[in-house]
What we know:
By secondary structure, the chain is of the alpha/beta class. The chain is built from 6 helices and 10 strands. It has one domain. It has helices spanning 3-7, 28-49, 122-127, 178-185, 218-233, 247-263, and strands spanning 71-72, 79-80, 83-84, 89-90, 105-110, 132-136, 148-151, 158-159, 170-175, 194-197. α2 crosses α6 (247-263). The protein is globular, with a radius of gyration of 19 Å. It binds zinc ion.
Amino acid sequence: xxxxxxxxxxxxxxxxxxxxxxxxxxxxxxxxxxxxxxxxxxxxxxxxxxxxxxxxxxxxxxxxxxxxxxxxxxxxxxxxxxxxxxxxxxxxxxxxxxxxxxxxxxxxxxxxxxxxxxxxxxxxxxxxxxxxxxxxxxxxxxxxxxxxxxxxxxxxxxxxxxxxxxxxxxxxxxxxxxxxxxxxxxxxxxxxxxxxxxxxxxxxxxxxxxxxxxxxxxxxxxxxxxxxxxxxxxxxxxxxxxxxxxxxxxxxxxxxxxxxxxxxxxxxxxxxxxx
Length: 275
Ligand SMILES: [Zn+2]
């Protein structure tokens, strides 16, 4: 078990070379105990002093997150932390987890060899359960091309601000590594679906990938899409309506920041990541 993924409540073995373990503690009991201590005090402090753009989001309170220990999912009974990525249910008191209503329905096309426990798009399903569905490739539905758009940056893609939003009912996101994205895009049911793109943004993601800082984590792309969509339908106004899409993402960002600051361990995945 990678201590880094243990921090995030993952329960899987590392398989990616780029995700080599950075934590050499070998006493799982002690490790878990320490991480719970981090959770309880330092993460919330880090959130308060964070100066990244994530700190400017309008987010629900994180106070109850500090009390969450690893516990059994109410539906499948598996041990989880923060949320169950199989059932897409939050742990702890569900009334304290933000619940979003999205203006479009969302499909996430997920490549099956990618671990769902590492998915960031799954955050959107936990937070906006009624509006988000996951589809395991190659199970791609037949879409109504008039009403559906696919977020994918290519030369032919339109910017969100340039499309006629009035007819759009569904937006599709792809969650896969780059080489598998091409396989998904080649699916015949996507042939007539228009591609849209968002403005260039820099990622805050903690996982290393070699494509550069403009390759976003899926949940970042989902957030930016809905922010731009909202601006497109309301003359540029955006009042944080969909900021809570980044609720878990912001918490995990601060969890990693505070844990690495307080443990004096090097964060080897990305240079200058720990602020
Ligand atoms: Zn579950």
